[in-house]
Amino acid sequence: MQAQGKKLSEDEWEKGKVHIKASELEFGSKIAEGKYGTVYKGKCRGQTVAIKLLHNQHLSEEKLEELKTEVEIMTRLRHPCILLLMGVCTDPNNVALVMEYVEGKGLDRILHDAKVPLSQTQQLRIAKDIAKGMNWLHCLDPPIIHRDIKPPNILVNANFDVKVCDFGLSCVKEIPKPGDKLRDTAVGSPIWMAPEVLSGHLASEKSDVYAYAIVLWEILTRKAPFSDVKSFEEFLDDVIDNDKRPPLPDTTHPRLARMIQSCWDGHPKRRPYFAEILNELDEILVEISIKEEPAQEIWKALKAKEFMGEHYPFFVAWENLIEALAKVLNVPELKTSSTDKAYLCLRTLLATPYRDFTRDKPLMTVTCEAFGRFLDCFGPLIDEDKNIITKLVEICEKPWFHGDIGRNDAESRLNSSKENKKGLFLVRLSSNNDSCFTISRINKDNKIVHQRIARDKRGNYLVQVGEELKAFKSLLDLIEKGERDLNLKVACGESRAFNIIFAPLIESRGYLSEMPSASPETAEKPKKPKKTGTKKKKEKGEKKERKEKKEKKERDEKKKTKK
């Protein structure tokens, strides 16, 4: 552990408020154990914290001073993607770092747990947050070099928020002097070390970039890097002399592959800075999520309008997107009328509330992933044949289309339907990246089955019928012509979010038994029809007539009894 700066006097040390006495620490359960210390959940001054008790409890006076100086620097670091270092205890046999406590897991435990699903968007979000934290460190004056970037040193919470941590090996940037000898030993973890560091050269911002590239490879593949290497000597030969790197999957997006390759380039000067990586990741995410170039340009143009800059490109404000779509598609009513059926269909399908408790109403947003999936299902965006908005409305008005619901919701709706069970079906957006829609239906054996609908490069809709893969020009065509082959007899029209939009139309066709709301903001509960004056008089007359008949019957029965 090395740091630059003057020795702190006892007064300065106390003023810094970073010195913590051993008596102020309460140790709880053990969280993790690493090469340099054991981490415990604990309390300090009433606050839940993470306490890293160093294995080496016999630091020299010089090392203690280095530790104090580095902690003094690092407690000033404030960034959402950097774990906050709160202080240090240097009391005998209690040398420990005190950090903020984060309820989460190390990235390594998430990546190598097959039970934890990770979408590509989630993977890139993690990658971007790591880059944001590292860019902050490198932009400091002087820069701070992490020197040990690896998945165990990255914390991820339940919301997939990232904290770069374990700065026990960070140091203020070292500037080599003429005549300096190469280091005999490198500090960090070899698997993630840059070739020049393995060779004994000083660590730099660019060696952190190399380590980041290996971590990014792990995030994408969810495998351990260099797992095929049998010895450390072989590893050194491969990385330093032969420029060997982990193999990128063939399915890696070309632009992402190029970025990773530039990050782990054998020549440090050819590697990008984290500021460049952040910009490139934004572009890559848009291109991965949205395949059509005109739609990509729409999304990228929204970056300048987004006041929530830290959330771009993952989501944008709904109103900004709908305004851009109205302009590109030349459909002005999309942005001028919130009662327009096309507006309401799009909003129901794409918009989700962003929880901000400082606002009276939730801000509606659209994720890049949702917009891309919308285009995959209903696109292309620009079509000479038929406007994408027209196609969307045509499908949303069908009683069998339920939009973005999951498998469990689909089964629940089919089971609770009042219609005849056999042949009952609904269509929903698919949760699988390889398909766009899913037909959930009750087959002839009275069992629920889920059948995926994919699209080919020509835009045809493909569905498996027995051993044959059949192609249809449109989803409407598929449902109509596949009725007999797939046993699609009765549309399940209950509990649809779109019912409130097409209520009069659906009621006239006899599909609707109830009208659920489309969204909390637009929904209104169905009102009972008001009784007219004529109807009220008629009901009153009928009630009086029934009462008179009852009284007459009672009188007749009394007369019979007397006789």
TrEMBL record:
Catalytic activity line of the entry: L-threonyl-[protein] + ATP = O-phospho-L-threonyl-[protein] + ADP + H(+); L-seryl-[protein] + ATP = O-phospho-L-seryl-[protein] + ADP + H(+)
Compositional bias (Basic residues): 527-538
Domain SH2 stretches: 400-480
ATP-binding as UniProt keyword: yes
Segments forming domain Protein kinase: 25-285
Alphabetized GO MF terms: ATP binding; protein serine/threonine kinase activity; protein tyrosine kinase activity
Keyword rRNA-binding annotated: no
Composition skew (Basic and acidic residues), residue ranges: 551-563
Keywords: ATP-binding, Kinase, Nucleotide-binding, SH2 domain, Transferase, Tyrosine-protein kinase
SMART domains named in the record: S_TKc, SH2
Residue ranges, annotated region (Disordered): 515-563
Top-rank taxon, per record: Eukaryota
Its biological purpose: Required for proper chemotaxis and phagocytosis; proper spatiotemporal control of F-actin levels in chemotaxing cells. Negative regulator of the PI3K (phosphatidylinositol 3 kinase) pathway. Predominantly phosphorylates serines and threonines and tyrosines at a lower level.
The protein's name: Protein kinase domain containing protein
